[in-house]
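F.,

This is the one I mentioned.
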């Protein structure tokens, strides 16, 4: 009889948008990490609005004179996002026994969310990724497209999409 080799989950990437649903998705990521004794990394992507606009308009922003002023704003946004994310993760972990997230495992990057998540997956050698299937709000999802959908289509690893908690409907 042939033996089936089961996948080993050693590292999990949990990508968040800091929405209320993201905490619901975090509970799944933590549960899976605990069950498999896996390392859990948390990623938040600060949206780079200028990069998005430039890409849609076909512009080359590095040549734009005022870009350095806007990059300073992005650094400030990055620091605020990192502090907010660490605070939320710490609050969550205080309510969970043996929380597998360490402060050094919290990553904050900037850019287009799906592209950054996919790049992080490729560079981090993760076994799986966990994302919420709904973001900040339904209008934003419609306007910006679905980050989750793109990640699922292009990811080389399994992606668990956690739907919006029923209590949030």
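My design for it:
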């Amino acid at each position: 009889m042939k033996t089936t080799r089961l996948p080993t989950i050693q590292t999990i990437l949990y990508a968040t948008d800091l929405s209320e649903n993201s905490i619901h998705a975090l509970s799944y990521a933590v549960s899976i990490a605990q069950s498999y004794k896996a390392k859990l990394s948390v990623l938040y992507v600060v949206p780079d609005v200028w990069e998005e606009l430039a890409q849609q308009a076909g512009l080359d922003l590095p040549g734009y004179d005022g870009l350095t002023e806007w990059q300073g704003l992005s650094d400030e946004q990055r620091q605020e996002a990192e502090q907010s994310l660490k605070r939320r993760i710490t609050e969550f972990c205080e309510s969970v026994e043996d929380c597998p997230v360490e402060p050094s495992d919290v990553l904050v990057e900037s850019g287009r969310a799906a592209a950054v998540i996919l790049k992080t997956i490729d560079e981090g050698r993760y076994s799986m990724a966990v994302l919420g299937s709904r973001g900040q709000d339904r209008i934003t999802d419609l306007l910006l497209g679905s980050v989750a959908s793109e990640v699922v289509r292009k990811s080389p690893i399994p992606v668990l999409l956690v739907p919006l908690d029923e209590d949030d409907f």
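Helices lie at 20-36, 49-57, 67-94, 113-124, 138-144, 147-154.

Talk soon.
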